[in-house]
């Protein structure tokens, strides 16, 4: 597998992966995290234009997608019921989705992000147990609760290599 920046030509493949992810969430008792329309088309387009959207390729097929950036996430400024591991500059991962036909894609994507930045933050819905298990399996630590701009609650995780930051 390999990771590359998304292009506009990848758009329909990315939409398809997000549709699969929404169905997976619904089937696993998490129907509200992304609902029927998240991420919106405009969000996906913005990620691509701003060069924050990435795809995971396996055998010339797009099998995963995610947003990655090394920037401050405004909704991470306040965390409750816990604390971040550190306050150092960090990378943020959002909107990760993978094909059901290929195992290990999300782990591969998270590993790629961690190689880019040894201090990562990510969040997920309280009902997204598959993602919570994936994050714990990949060395992320539960840090507390953050709130999105619309007020929705998310569980916040961080993975940091304190020796290399």
Automatic annotation (TrEMBL):
Residues 1-164 form the N-acetyltransferase domain. Transmembrane segments: none annotated. It comes from the Bacteria. InterPro entries: Acyl_CoA_acyltransferase, GNAT_dom. Keywords: Transferase. SUPFAM superfamilies: Acyl-CoA N-acyltransferases (Nat). Gene3D superfamilies: 3.40.630.30. Pfam families: Acetyltransf_1 (PF00583). GO terms for molecular function: acyltransferase activity, transferring groups other than amino-acyl groups. This is Acetyltransferase (GNAT) family protein.
